[in-house]
Amino acid sequence: MLARMTATRRLHSRFVEAAPQRRETSVGVWLHFEPLRPRPDEGRIEDWADLGPALTVPAVQGLGKVLRLLRAARIAAPRDPLGLVGREDHAWELLLRAVGTEVRLTLRPRTRVRFLAWTEHGVETVHDVEDVIVAEDAYLVRRFRGRFPVRFERSALIRHRTESERWHEILDIERA
Asked: Which pLDDT score is estimated for 2?
């Protein structure tokens, strides 16, 4: 079995803003970067640094992003970095001092596809779509991660649409 490889690229950019956010299930900081050499295919780069509220794998990954950005800006990390978990306001205060820092981001382009189907009963949405197979009498929507496909009879559909969302995942942050 062949693994799917997605190309990564490096982008010279400037850290321009941090925005703390507390959600129902998580807390963290939005990190905003602007490329130093703008390209028509990409604008501002945004990434979510999850900080908990509990010490989980996504929180450790988010904490790593915050700490790498602080290191790139030559700002001392707190004595106990785990103390930032669940404290997005404290992380935000530290990140404000890093605004303007030029960094080199390692990025991976990402895409998320969903299929929307309008029926007499309402709108149904299928997330994480791998592809849509068009048969004579139905649409077969295959999903990633081995989940079962979803079948929509053509006669039951009023309308359908496929939407995609594109973004860049930040894999690494280094000082430029």
From this structure: 43
